[in-house]
Design brief:
This protein is 34% helix and 16% strand. By secondary structure, the chain is α/β, with parallel strands linked by helices.
Amino acid sequence: MESVEIVECQGGRPVYNLRVGEHPSYFANGVLVHNCHTQLAAWVDLITQWKDKPLSEGGPVFVGLSATPFSKGLGKLFTNLVNVATMHELTQNGVLTPFRTFSATPIDMKGAKTSGGEWTDKAAEERGLAIIGDVVKEWVKLGEGRKTIVFGATIKHCEEMCRAFNEAGIMAATFTKDTKKAERETLLREYRKPDSVLRVLISVEALAKGFDVADVSCVVDCRPLRKSLSTFIQMLGRGLRSAPGKVDCILLDHSGNIVRFQRDFEDVYFHGLNSLDMGEKLDATVRKDEEEREERACPKCGYKPFTKKCISCGFEKTSASLIEHQPGEMREVFIGTVRVADNQRQLWAQCVNYCKKHGNEATVYGRASHIFKSVAGEFQPKQWSTNVPDTPIPAALLGKIRNQMIRWGKGKAAKRK
């Protein structure tokens, strides 16, 4: 969905124009539910009332929007699930930013008490308190001073981490259900500043869903989970929004969640969900701690953890007969018979410089990645940034880009017909 616009209002009832893809469709007599995974009674009661009645009786049409449709019972409220875009596609397009993971000092949850398959808050708090010194030390070492959100197991756990950050000279604050409204407003007013002196906000749940400060570029996960994949995705998502000048997000994983959820998260990242009930099932599945399993790295870029397809560079395990040789980083790059770059690094600089001069600055990385792939046959390594030298763009590359733009424009025109 690209946009929602009120196009007219008669008798106090608004009519919306929803633009989906390239096609406008008028959504009259409808209910649009944002973040439908929250299942608020105000609309759940209404949809239950009308769900099984034919449209001929004049009932409303319901459209639910959600980035994480995992909550129980969505399949009983809605009829179909449409995956508009996967996390991988949004990352490639520059809407989301890539992330780098550091498996930091882990919270030892071996033998911790559980309830309903999930670790109890008290158990996670007690184990988490034992490594607070490591959390601060490793943020100083690996967090690069970035604007950061830390997730803890309980309010007490958050308060103790906050105290440790402040004692280390790092301005931090807690943001929980106990934080008063006036204090929340003051904290957010400062935190939203690009040069905010408040570097770290610490929360259990209050910042996990819907919180939007796009230049957050570090997430520290100190909240170990066994079941709720959606909560893990929501926590990580606080650092994945793109912003001007933002290259990636750092995840400091003290919880072990990235390893525990890796197989399912990898599938959701690349493919999304295939049914309304799939998310519910994923959130009900207990992942046993796999500390004894060797944490494998991607053979191509070294990203950990790796199972079948690398979230960092996209490398996928393939049978030897299907592997094609790809040009190395130090080889010359050609378009046809014309050499356009001495090596892939130089080609990347050319692509970035072109995108910086044409189009939205916030999407430079994603657009440059696609131009690079169209020439080199593969995406550049994820660790390459848009901080590149000013490099002349050869005519052959300009011609290829322009031809792509023409084909893209013709494709859009054909879709409108």
